[in-house]
Design goal:
Layout: H1 17-42, H2 50-81, H3 87-99, H4 102-113, H5 118-125, H6 134-158, H7 162-170, H8 175-204, H9 207-212, H10 219-230, H11 236-246, H12 248-260
Helix pairs in contact: 2-6, 2-8, 2-11, 3-6, 6-8, 7-8, 8-12
Length: 261
């Protein structure tokens, strides 16, 4: 008897796989090959303010990721465990944030948190202002990435067997102990994948930031400014910097996920 073919290759022979893999790889690598070629021909020249843009995106982006994790994790856990009748409503709200175009979300944030908006005026009375400052930038990034994290984290918590949590409770563990020692470790891979996805969205956020927090300028907005002022030849160096400072975190996460698989 012949051994059964691996599940992932049944109906498709291994020699045929490159026919599908190679075109996709070529499509993915062509833009970066062009970046390498253009940088080699034009040289590596940073424009004024590029270093500040990197600091803004990296520093405030990390802060936004922490806020997304702290706010999004309880929501995701609740969605994964609750049987409440309002669960579809909460899911619809998360999906609305996810599906709203970035430019539209920026307009909505300006209509809510702007200096002359209802919530913005109330916050201004206690000294909190979201108007072209670091707070507005972080808030825009949070809105840009939180829905992606909640969706991924909810799926991660749903994959945790409730039997393990119930067994820990029977053995005398408190709710917090069960969460920290059972739920979180078992959902860690999915949570990390959600953070990677949120990080990519946060760092690359352009539409929301452009409308709601044009200053301080992060990398995406600075790329646009350089493109408009100096042409495409002046953006390659900043593109390299963006890849250099933003890729290590998701790549480390992917290697971690691969090591635990």
């Amino acid at each position: 008897m012949r051994p059964a073919a691996p599940v992932g290759t049944r109906g498709l022979s291994l020699p045929a796989l490159p026919l599908f893999v190679i075109p996709a790889c070529i499509l993915c690598i062509l833009p970066f090959a062009a970046l390498l070629w253009q940088t080699g021909s034009e040289g590596f020249h940073l424009a004024y303010g590029d270093g500040d843009a990197v600091q803004v995106s990296l520093g405030l982006g990390l802060l936004a990721i922490v806020i997304i994790f702290l706010i999004g994790t309880p929501v995701a856990l609740w969605l994964a465990r609750t049987r409440s009748r309002i669960k579809p409503l909460i899911e619809m709200i998360v999906l609305a944030v996810l599906l709203t175009p970035p430019l539209a979300m920026g307009i909505l944030l300006l209509s809510v948190y702007g200096p002359y908006a209802s919530v913005g005026e109330l916050l201004g009375r206690i000294g909190i202002v979201f108007n072209n400052n670091a707070g507005a930038f972080v808030l825009a990034q949070v809105y840009g990435g939180i829905a992606y994290f909640i969706m991924a984290a909810t799926a991660a918590f749903e994959s945790v067997p409730t039997d393990a949590e119930e067994a820990a409770t029977v053995l005398g563990a408190t709710g917090m102990q069960t969460f920290l020692r059972i739920t979180m470790p078992l959902a860690a891979r999915g949570l990390l994948a959600g953070l990677i996805l949120a990080w990519v969205r946060v760092i690359g956020e352009f539409g929301v930031v452009t409308i709601f927090a044009y200053f301080p300028q992060g990398i995406p907005v600075k790329l646009y400014v350089n493109l408009q002022n100096d042409g495409v030849d002046q953006v390659y160096a900043l593109l390299w910097l963006m890849l250099a400072v933003t890729l290590p975190l998701p790549l480390a996460g992917l290697f971690f996920l691969r090591g635990r698989s």
